[in-house]
Amino acid sequence: MVLDSDSPKEQSVRVVVRVRPMNEKENKANTLPVTLIRGVGQRQIRQVYHFDSVYTSYSTQCEVFETVRPLVHEVMQGFEATVFAYGQTGTGKTHTMEGEIVCEEKKGIIPRAVEAIFESLGEKGKYVSSAVSASYLEIYNEELSDLLTEARCGEMWGDAADERGVYNGRSSHADGAPKLSLVEDKGDGKRRGKGVYAHNLSEHEVCSAADVLGLIARAQERRRVGETRMNKHSSRSHCVFTLTRKNINQSLLTLGRVISTLRDAGGKDKARIPYRDSKLTRLLQESLGGRCKTVVIATLSPSQLAVEESASTLSYVEKAQGITNKPVATSFLKYLEEQAAEAEAALARKHTQQA
Ligand code: ADP
After folding, report:
1. Which residues on neighbouring strands pair with residue 196, listed in sequence order?
2. Would you list the DSSP string of 241-307?
3. What φ, ψ does residue 274 adopt, rounded to 5°?
4. Is the Cβ–Cβ distance between 294 and 86 less than 8 Å?
5. Which parts of the sequence belong to the Kinesin motor domain (predicted)?
6. Which residue has the higher pLDDT, 336 or 231?
7. What angle do CA 92, 93, 97 make, to 5 degrees?
8. Which residues, in sequence order, are bridge partners of residue 54?
9. Is 322 in contact with 46 (CB distance < 8 Å)?
10. pLDDT digits (tens, 9 = 90+) for 277-328
11. How many CA atoms lie within 13 A of 2 on its CB side?
């Protein structure tokens, strides 16, 4: 891509926190909710953290979306943006990011953002539809899987567990779905590369927010099927859980190291940042210390039962606030020109191969 600006300005990663309402189990356990109190001098405060915004159990999906709405405007100006949710299982990451996509009140950030983007495109959307595409992947056990390939949903974990239901480390892609690997396109003097991306990940052209919601629904179904299989296996064996947690931890451990090193190095010594130590951090390379505008949403349970995990989440994401990115914008028109040039080049290559 052609850059509009040679000297991008630094911008901090924004970190917001969202506490979900108490769930049935937490209510039954008869524990008091942990209170978020602004100010000092309260006996309850064990640790004071500072964040860009805090959303409580009463905050609506609509209110939480307002924290990332400015990113939609910036994306339309040509910036790249990332929103990622971080938190203990069951604290509301999926609810915050996806929510119930068909319910006006309950839909999350992704459906709201795509609707806002297509709304901004307005009439222009008709002419640029082929320039907008969507993809969706999942990382499990350091393996990448495409949540939107045509492979049948039921095959997702089919070959990946042994007869005891223990995850056997084999790829879940042996069902014929393309195996994904990460590659880096650095670009050259004239063209900004794509950065780190998953090779062979299916890209789906979308012409409307409804198209995107359809894809999300498909991905949710695949994840649901995968999780159901996982639970079935885990009821017979502990190993599946252990392996899952081990791999989540591995990625998150590296994410933590990337965040700390970025903070300490002030983003100056890029070579020291251990992006390559996990797939997650490699994919988030431009989001943390790179060219994206980034918001991190930490999700929390309100319950006393989860206070240790909540404190650990808050300490973890608090570090991310010290990271500065250097967002760069690409003119949307130039982007379209590049897309057209790339399509022409691909067509020419195809013709040459056929000749
Ligand atoms: P995670 O993705 O972090 O594992 P989920 O998003 O699946 O967690 O949330 C777990 C449960 O809590 C789901 O049933 C979800 O609907 C509910 N939940 C999470 N956050 C909220 C919220 N802010 N308001 C209402 N329900 C929520």
Report:
1. 184
2. HHHHHHHHHHHHHHHHHHHHHHHHHTT--GGGS-GGGSHHHHHTTTTSSSSEEEEEEEEE--BGGGH
3. -80, 50
4. no
5. 12-323
6. 336
7. 115
8. 17
9. no
10. 777 778 788 888 888 888 889 999 888 878 888 888 888 888 888 788 887 7
11. 11
| One-character DSSP codes across 85-146 | EE-STTSSHHHHHTB-TT-TTTB-HHHHHHHHHHHHHGGGHHHHGGG-EE--EEEETTEEEE
- 300 bridge partner residues: 19
- DSSP secondary structure string, 217-237? HHHHHHHHHHHHHHHHHHTT-
Q: Which two tokens stand for residue 185?
A: 């396109």
Q: Identify which of 59, 89, 95, 296 to mutate to test ligand 1's pocket (most ligand atoms within 8 A of the CB).
A: 95
* Contact present, 327 and 7 (Cβ < 8 Å): no
pTM above 0.80?
no
Q: Which of ligand 1's atoms lies nearest the C-alpha of 85?
A: 3
- What does DSSP assign to residue 161? B
Which residues, judged by CB distance below 6 Å to any ligand atom, belong to the binding site of ligand 1?
20-21, 23, 87, 89-95, 299
Q: How far is the CA of 69 from the centre of ligand 1 (A)?
A: 21
Burial 151-178 (b: 16+ CB within 10 A, else e): beeebbbeebbeeebbbeeeebbebebe
Report ipTM (2 d.p.).
0.99
Provide the b/e sequence for 180-195 (b: ≥16 CB within 10 Å): beeeeeeeeeeebeeb
Segment (H or E) for 27 = helix 24-28
- pLDDT digit string (tens) for 249-274? 566 667 777 777 777 766 566 677 77
